[in-house]
Amino acid sequence: MSTGTNTRVVRETKETKVTVELARGSGVARVDTGLKFFDHMLSTFARYAGLDLTLHARGDLRHHLMEDVAITLGTAVQRVVPATAARYGERTVPMDDALVQACLDAGGRFYYRGPLKNRLYEHWMRSFCEHSRITLHLRVLRGRDSHHLTEAAFKALGLALRDAMVDSGVVFSMKGSVSLEVT
């Protein structure tokens, strides 16, 4: 976890280029990946999480683009979570036929358990959690429509993260502050 409140992360490979600017704020998003539904999901996530997001990405394949956006955005999110965050968040979101629950811990350890019906969005969630160092249990309680299930998942994730990022003023861990030094 970090004490920073905003960050800029750029990831560039032979396959993709992703630029993310992220700050805790009011949920204003400017997203351009060239994939309209994906842009909508990322904007929805930012709005519900209360994160101001500017994201531009281009890539050779949909899979590479979505994965690298997850890596870059996850890294940025990890950097804006306060060191004294409340850590835990849980939200259940209904959307038409869909009912999706997200339970998360923003305490610095990666774990993801789904699944979503869409394999690309399932992979996105796993990659995002790994790089944001979030534990996320995502449960599809009801629903068949992949669009509604995916959108409800991004909304639930955003709302749960919003709750987890509330600055509590204390470190929520029996270990206290954790320090890791790499030399």
Salient structural properties:
183 residues; alpha/beta; 4-stranded mixed β-sheet; 4 helices
Give structural notes.
There is one protein chain. The protein is of the alpha/beta class and 183 residues long. It contains four helices and eight strands, in the order βββαβαβββαβα. It has helices spanning 36-49, 62-80, 119-132, 146-164; strands spanning 6-12, 16-24, 29-32, 51-59, 88-95, 98-105, 111-113, 135-142. The strands form two sheets. The chain has a four-stranded mixed β-sheet with strand order 1-2-4-3, covered by helices on one side. The protein has a four-stranded mixed β-sheet with strand order 5-6-8-7. Helix 1 (36-49) runs parallel beside helix 4 (146-164).
Give the helices and strands as they follow along the chain: EEEHEHEEEHEH
Describe the global form. Answer: globular
Strands across the major sheet, in which order?
1-2-4-3
Secondary structure: helix percent:
25-40%
How much strand content do the residues show? 25-35%
Helix tally equals: 4
Low-confidence stretches: none
- The average pLDDT score comes to 93
Largest sheet properties: 4 strands, mixed
Could you tell me how far the N terminus lies from the C terminus, measured between alpha carbons in angstroms? Answer: 19 Å
Structural class: alpha/beta
Rg to the nearest angstrom? 15 Å
Total number of strands: 8
Protein name: Imidazoleglycerol-phosphate dehydratase
Subcellular location: Cytoplasm
Family: Belongs to the imidazoleglycerol-phosphate dehydratase family.
InterPro entries: IGPD_sf, ImidazoleglycerolP_deHydtase, ImidazoleglycerP_deHydtase_CS, Ribosomal_Su5_D2-typ_SF
